[in-house]
Design brief:
Number of strands of chain C: 17
CATH architecture of the largest domain in chain C: 2-Layer Sandwich
Structural class of chain C: alpha+beta
CATH architecture of chain A: 2-Layer Sandwich
Strand content of chain C: 35-45%
Number of helices of chain A: 4
Number of helices of chain C: 4
Oligomer: heterotrimer
Strand order of the largest sheet of chain C: 9-10-11-13-12
Helix content of chain C: 10-25%
Chains: A alpha+beta (235), B alpha+beta (258), C alpha+beta (227)
CATH topology of the largest domain in chain C: Ribosomal Protein S8, Chain: A, domain 1
Largest sheet of chain A: 5 strands, mixed
Number of strands of chain A: 9
Largest sheet of chain C: 5 strands, mixed, barrel
CATH topology of chain A: Ribosomal Protein S5, domain 2
Helix content of chain A: 25-40%
Number of domains of chain C: 3
Shape of chain A: globular
CATH class of the largest domain in chain C: Alpha Beta
Order of helices and strands of chain A: EEEEHEHEEHEEH
Shape of chain C: flat
Number of domains of chain A: 1
CATH superfamily of chain A: GHMP Kinase, N-terminal domain
Radius of gyration of chain A: 18 Å
Chain lengths: 235, 258, 227
């Protein structure tokens, strides 16, 4: 079988339209929104603040805690039952690991930085959208970072390698989904998951595709942070 | 007394509010529909000043209550996300979030703005359930009114999904709305010391002694009331609060439309 | 090669500021091989060969001798815990608390109670969790009723101005009492609520536009227009 044309009509390496905005939650220490296609993620950051209970503290460096959640009306089918699920807990965990290598919490021993990610609407690629928003929110909160983190899902549908899968592609029977996060400055990869069947050679190509896509995403992230300052001044 | 609260009192005593508003003046209100139109059958965002709340409507099919075999029902749920304020904690729904959902629920239910019989698919067997979920995105005061408005806006935006052999097909949405003709508009009046005012900002919200949420039909009939806060109100205060709520609800209604 | 940004440019984490060995990193700028990289969201500050950043956000980092505004979190048996807007609260020990004599076993909440706000001075910091403050010194006191504003600590110098020129101008033209903590917490109160609001707006204007030249004139214009 051959996947000749994408369901959405996009080119195989084309991302859905995406945008980023910083400072969307006034009460938070840092916040951002990242929208890609119909997927909308909002992230807010609180801290560094003292971590309770005390036994969770690391005296050497601050602790990062990421919480991922889909609001009840954000699913494509039935209402999502509120509260944590195994899926949301795992995504919180991999998000934390995706961000941690690029943030420096060594000055905040005993403290915690909390990241809350809410999905308002979903159309696949939610963990990547969440990471893109969270990286911006951390920078906005003034957390020391070695780079912004950018994330995208790449993969394979039938015989074609694709970038930024939407829901239809994500649920395709002969499909492979690879969410990936990286620092485009260093090229280091901090999130990598995959499900489906694919060759090693193809994964190599997917990573290359992801790198190019992340560079485009990074550009928009940078612009959001730089523009926030100009927009605030104009108010 | 806390110096911030004392300062609020002092400013009120001079006839002013800290942010320069009059006692009966609300911040700018902004309503946006269909903010999650791909996922939710109805959705909306309400901003009151810097406060922002989103709400969404999902439809489901369920069995009716045995005593009301021909009626569907609504389920209102609010979650005070730790995303929205440093004062909100993670974990199971707090008592505050439960109160907000109950107050919003009661206004909608008691105004009878939704004809529950119209939600019947097959009497005694299957009925439509309407889930309304409310999430503050930023709490800069007055979450009660923002939550109520956002819920109504999401209901107004909602369109039934198709039903195929008793199963909901979320991918295909009909053009049929819930058909509400008279939306119950809620307004919360706050009391600090002897001063009564509407639409609190963060500080005014935090240091309020008492509050009264009143919901009105378009004919200015009351359909639900909730008094909250740690301090009591005199009956004279109560009557003033009701008048103030009525007037403000009329202003909300102008923004909300029909 | 050489420097890739201008003084006062807004930069983001991971942005390459300079290449080669001509410049030296300081503060939130770090070296990665040949490159000098920004480690934070901030404004570039170039002085000679030194490249550093003025952060645009972030929690206050306590420094010795700083005057800060904090709120009493807890009253213990041998002192108080004060929230000064850092990750950790500061401690005020009995001996640093007041010029008055405190009797053994006295009720410490009579001096400073939970929820009180104080202007205090940092006397010692060692490690992130140990911050000692004192209430003994000129200007250190319990604050009366007033409004609190929070600004990014890095913007405090602009709000104070050269030799206090900016803050004096605001105080004079609005008849407000204003105390600025180095931790970005500002306390203010005025007889006239309208003038108080003008002072708040002036401070917010400085916080938003601290990097723009001609700020003093802009603030003056706002104050005169609202007089």
């Amino acid at each position: 079988m051959s996947y000749t044309k994408r369901f959405s009509g996009r080119k195989f390496d084309e991302l859905r339209p995406f945008e980023a905005k910083v400072g969307v939650v006034k009460r938070a220490d840092g916040s951002a929104m990242f929208k890609i296609g119909s997927t909308i993620a909002i992230a807010s950051v609180y801290g560094p603040r003292e971590l309770y209970p005390q036994f969770l503290q690391d005296p050497k460096k601050g602790v990062l805690r990421c919480n991922y959640n889909m609001v009840a009306f954000s699913g494509s089918g039935d209402r999502v039952k509120p509260g944590p699920s195994r899926r949301s807990k795992e995504i919180g965990l991999v998000t934390e690991k995706a961000l941690l290598p690029f943030i420096d919490l060594s000055d905040f021993g005993g403290a915690v930085v909390d990241v809350f990610i809410e999905l308002i609407q979903t159309d696949a690629g939610t963990r990547c959208a969440g990471i893109n928003a969270a990286a911006l929110a951390l920078a906005h909160a003034g957390i020391p970072m070695k780079d912004l983190v950018s994330a995208v899902a790449v993969g394979k549908i039938e015989d074609k390698l694709v970038v930024d899968l939407d829901y239809e592609e994500d649920s395709h029977e002969i499909g492979v989904d690879i969410p990936l996060a990286m620092s485009t400055r260093t090229g280091e990869i901090s999130l990598l998951q995959m499900d489906g069947i694919i060759s090693v050679e193809e994964v190599k190509n997917c990573v290359e595709n992801a790198r190019k896509a992340c560079e485009k995403i990074k550009e928009v992230q940078v612009k959001a942070l730089k523009e926030f300052y100009g927009l605030e001044a104009k108010k | 007394m806390n110096i911030l609260k004392k300062h609020l009192y002092n400013t009120f005593d001079k006839g002013f509010r800290e942010d320069g508003r009059k006692f009966d003046e609300t911040r700018e209100i902004f309503i946006e529909y269909g903010i999650s139109s791909r996922s939710a059958e109805g959705s909306a965002r309400v901003k009151i000043g810097e406060t922002e709340v989103v709400a969404g409507v999902k439809f489901g099919i369920g069995s009716p209550f045995p005593d009301k075999p021909g009626e569907g029902s609504i389920v209102v749920n609010a979650e005070l996300l730790p995303l929205a304020s440093p004062d909100y904690d993670s974990g199971p729904p707090s008592i505050d979030s439960i109160e907000i959902s109950r107050v919003v629920d009661r206004a909608i239910r008691e105004s009878k703005c939704i004809n529950m019989k119209s939600l019947c698919v097959k009497s005694g067997e299957s009925v439509w359930l309407i889930f309304i979920d409310i999430y503050p995105i930023n709490n800069s005061g007055n979450i009660f009114d923002a939550a109520a408005l956002a819920s109504l806006a999401a209901l107004k935006d909602a369109k039934f999904p198709s039903l195929k052999d008793g199963v909901v097909d979320y991918k295909s949405r009909t053009k049929k709305g819930i058909g509400i003709v008279d939306y119950p508009i809620s307004c919360t009046v706050r009391k600090i010391g002897s001063h009564l005012f509407v639409d609190p900002n963060v500080n005014e919200d935090l240091y309020s002694d008492a509050r009264l949420t009143a919901s009105f039909t378009s004919k200015n009939m009351l359909c639900s009331l909730q008094k909250g806060g740690n301090v009591s109100v005199t009956s004279d205060e109560l009557f003033t609060m009701l008048e103030l709520a009525k007037k403000t609800a009329q202003n909300y209604r102008k923004v909300f439309g029909k | 090669m050489g420097i890739l940004v201008n003084d006062k440019d807004v930069v983001v984490p991971g942005e390459i500021l300079a290449e080669g060995m001509d410049f030296v990193p300081s503060g939130d700028v770090f070296r990665d091989g040949e490159k000098l990289v920004s480690g934070r969201w901030g404004l570039v500050s170039v002085s000679g060969r030194i490249l550093k950043l003025i952060p645009l956000s972030g929690k206050y980092v306590p420094k010795r001798n700083d005057l800060v505004i904090g709120t009493i979190e807890n009253v213990g048996i041998s002192g108080w815990r004060i929230d000064i807007g850092c990750a950790f609260s500061a401690s005020l020990l009995l001996r640093d608390a007041t010029q008055e004599f405190i009797e053994r076993g006295a009720d410490l909440s009579k001096f400073y109670d939970v929820g009180d706000y104080v202007m205090c001075q940092i006397v010692k910091t060692s490690g992130p969790k140990i911050i000692d403050v004192s209430m003994k010194g000129p200007g250190l006191r319990k604050l009366g009723p007033g409004k609190l504003l929070k600004v990014a600590p890095a913007k405090v110098p602009r709000i104070i101005g050269k030799q206090g020129s900016m803050i004096s101008m605001i105080k004079e033209m609005t008849d407000c009492k204003i105390s600025v903590g180095q931790n970005g917490i500002i306390w203010l109160v005025g007889e006239d609520p309208k003038k108080e609001l003008t002072a708040v707006d002036a401070i917010n204007l400085i916080e938003r536009e601290s990097h723009i030249s001609g700020l003093t004139d802009k603030v003056k214009e706002l104050l005169e227009k609202r007089k």
